[in-house]
């Protein structure tokens, strides 16, 4: 009898195993693989076909507004209190305003930024912010064209995706005890923060790498540059912060480490892909935008739009990329909006200038160590 039960149990287990592998979706899904490095190095980006299709569908650039015939009247001479786009024709100005409504506030409409009883009124903070954001877009499409965004450029939609507040913004993370004024004894980590892939890495990584324009240009580099130590190295906490930043960039772009690095020699620029140079500039671009355009707006935002420590909502890699290695799959979104590809100054203020980097990188053999 015991032998019979053992045989019956074995038969049942066999059928259950067959059922699991045959009917429970245990087969490998169709895979898409793109090689970005030398053959044999394993520098591939791997996605499921279903995942790639879903990501593509969620990142479609909107159709541009119908073109208009450019007239001779300028917006600044026709409308009151036009400060940034005053030299744009009235027709192009109206077309851009219509597009901005669709890009940023399609549900709220013009009233999100304007008092429609008096369009020149500046009482709404949204209008002041939008004015500065137009300048920021122009700055990106000019100063950072060659170094990062290329011919594709950016518009308001690149970040906003039809929402007044972009999905991916960040605030300073003061830690778990900021309301009680007690200093947490957790070394700024050991909390499952989404910014570092829900790991126990330092949770305020963005403040270290993205918030300050005058930060040490070698802050990210933690590995030695010589075979033997010549001075005291950086502590393990610095390495953890750098690793947290790399995890964010990987997640924000929907790629793995080999998109930029050959992981057999991860710090070697000559074995890295061209994307690493673009990322080098991207880090500095984010610092530039947060420092010159976002932080100065802190006093303009109402308290409910500020973070727990009273800071403005800032940018990171995910703000534009939204999980794709190229925002909106690399669509050339500014070709039909030439007014966003030139810098215009706000009344009484000069357009901000890009800070000089410590050292310009080149794809090969070795750019600045960062």
From TrEMBL:
<keyword id="KW-0249">Electron transport</keyword>
<feature type="binding site" description="covalent">
    <location>
        <position position="110"/>
    </location>
    <ligand>
        <name>heme 1</name>
    </ligand>
</feature>
<dbReference type="GO" id="GO:0030077">
    <property type="term" value="C:plasma membrane light-harvesting complex"/>
</dbReference>
<feature type="binding site" description="axial binding residue">
    <location>
        <position position="246"/>
    </location>
    <ligand>
        <name>heme 3</name>
    </ligand>
</feature>
<feature type="binding site" description="covalent">
    <location>
        <position position="320"/>
    </location>
    <ligand>
        <name>heme 4</name>
    </ligand>
</feature>
<dbReference type="GO" id="GO:0019684">
    <property type="term" value="P:photosynthesis, light reaction"/>
</dbReference>
<feature type="binding site" description="covalent">
    <location>
        <position position="257"/>
    </location>
    <ligand>
        <name>heme 3</name>
    </ligand>
</feature>
<feature type="binding site" description="axial binding residue">
    <location>
        <position position="148"/>
    </location>
    <ligand>
        <name>heme 4</name>
    </ligand>
</feature>
<comment type="function">
    <text>The reaction center of purple bacteria contains a tightly bound cytochrome molecule which re-reduces the photo oxidized primary electron donor.</text>
</comment>
<feature type="binding site" description="axial binding residue">
    <location>
        <position position="321"/>
    </location>
    <ligand>
        <name>heme 4</name>
    </ligand>
</feature>
<feature type="binding site" description="covalent">
    <location>
        <position position="113"/>
    </location>
    <ligand>
        <name>heme 1</name>
    </ligand>
</feature>
<keyword id="KW-0408">Iron</keyword>
<dbReference type="GO" id="GO:0020037">
    <property type="term" value="F:heme binding"/>
</dbReference>
<feature type="binding site" description="axial binding residue">
    <location>
        <position position="160"/>
    </location>
    <ligand>
        <name>heme 2</name>
    </ligand>
</feature>
<keyword id="KW-0349">Heme</keyword>
<dbReference type="Pfam" id="PF02276">
    <property type="entry name" value="CytoC_RC"/>
</dbReference>
<feature type="region of interest" description="Disordered">
    <location>
        <begin position="343"/>
        <end position="370"/>
    </location>
</feature>
<feature type="binding site" description="covalent">
    <location>
        <position position="260"/>
    </location>
    <ligand>
        <name>heme 3</name>
    </ligand>
</feature>
<feature type="binding site" description="covalent">
    <location>
        <position position="317"/>
    </location>
    <ligand>
        <name>heme 4</name>
    </ligand>
</feature>
<dbReference type="GO" id="GO:0009055">
    <property type="term" value="F:electron transfer activity"/>
</dbReference>
<keyword id="KW-0479">Metal-binding</keyword>
<feature type="binding site" description="covalent">
    <location>
        <position position="156"/>
    </location>
    <ligand>
        <name>heme 2</name>
    </ligand>
</feature>
<feature type="binding site" description="axial binding residue">
    <location>
        <position position="97"/>
    </location>
    <ligand>
        <name>heme 1</name>
    </ligand>
</feature>
<feature type="binding site" description="covalent">
    <location>
        <position position="159"/>
    </location>
    <ligand>
        <name>heme 2</name>
    </ligand>
</feature>
<feature type="compositionally biased region" description="Pro residues">
    <location>
        <begin position="352"/>
        <end position="370"/>
    </location>
</feature>
<protein>
    <recommendedName>
        <fullName>Photosynthetic reaction center cytochrome c subunit</fullName>
    </recommendedName>
</protein>
<feature type="binding site" description="axial binding residue">
    <location>
        <position position="261"/>
    </location>
    <ligand>
        <name>heme 3</name>
    </ligand>
</feature>
<dbReference type="InterPro" id="IPR003158">
    <property type="entry name" value="Photosyn_RC_cyt_c-su"/>
</dbReference>
<feature type="binding site" description="axial binding residue">
    <location>
        <position position="114"/>
    </location>
    <ligand>
        <name>heme 1</name>
    </ligand>
</feature>
<keyword id="KW-0813">Transport</keyword>
<dbReference type="GO" id="GO:0005506">
    <property type="term" value="F:iron ion binding"/>
</dbReference>
<keyword id="KW-0602">Photosynthesis</keyword>
<dbReference type="InterPro" id="IPR036280">
    <property type="entry name" value="Multihaem_cyt_sf"/>
</dbReference>
<keyword id="KW-0674">Reaction center</keyword>
<dbReference type="InterPro" id="IPR023119">
    <property type="entry name" value="Multihaem_cyt_PRC_cyt_su-like"/>
</dbReference>
<feature type="binding site" description="axial binding residue">
    <location>
        <position position="133"/>
    </location>
    <ligand>
        <name>heme 2</name>
    </ligand>
</feature>
């Amino acid at each position: 009898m015991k032998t019979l039960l053992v045989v019956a149990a074995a038969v049942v287990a066999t059928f259950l195993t067959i059922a699991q592998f045959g009917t429970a979706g245990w087969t490998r899904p169709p895979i898409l693989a793109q090689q970005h490095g030398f053959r044999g190095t394993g520098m591939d980006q791997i996605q499921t076909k279903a995942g790639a299709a879903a990501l593509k569908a969620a990142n479609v650039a909107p159709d541009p507004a119908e073109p208009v015939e450019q007239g001779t009247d300028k917006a600044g001479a026709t409308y009151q209190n036009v400060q940034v786009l005053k030299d744009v024709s009235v027709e192009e100005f109206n077309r851009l305003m219509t597009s901005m409504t669709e890009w940023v506030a399609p549900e709220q409409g013009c009233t999100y930024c304007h008092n429609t009883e008096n369009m020149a009124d500046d009482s709404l903070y949204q209008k002041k912010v939008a004015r500065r954001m137009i300048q920021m877009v122009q700055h990106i499409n000019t100063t950072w064209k060659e170094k990062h965004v290329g011919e594709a450029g950016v518009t308001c939609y690149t970040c906003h995706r039809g929402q007044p507040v972009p999905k991916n913004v960040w605030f300073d993370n003061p830690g778990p005890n900021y309301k009680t004024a007690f200093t947490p004894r957790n070394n700024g980590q050991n909390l499952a923060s989404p910014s570092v892939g829900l790991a126990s890495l330092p949770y305020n990584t963005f403040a270290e790498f993205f918030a300050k324009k005058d930060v040490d240009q070698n802050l990210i580099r933690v590995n030695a540059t010589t075979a033997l130590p010549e001075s005291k190295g950086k502590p393990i906490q610095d390495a953890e912060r750098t690793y947290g930043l790399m995890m964010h960039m990987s997640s924000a772009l929907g790629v793995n480490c080999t998109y930029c690095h050959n992981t057999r020699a991860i710090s070697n620029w000559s074995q890295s892909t061209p994307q690493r140079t673009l990322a080098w500039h991207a880090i500095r671009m984010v610092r530039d935008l947060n420092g010159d355009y976002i932080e100065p707006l802190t006093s303009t935002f109402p308290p409910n739009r500020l973070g727990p420590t009273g800071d403005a909502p800032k940018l990171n890699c995910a703000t534009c990329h939204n999980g794709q290695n190229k925002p909106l799959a690399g669509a050339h979104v500014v070709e039909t909006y030439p007014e966003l590809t030139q810098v215009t100054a706000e009344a009484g203020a000069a357009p901000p200038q890009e800070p000089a980097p410590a050292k310009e990188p080149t794809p090969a053999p070795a750019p600045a160590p960062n």
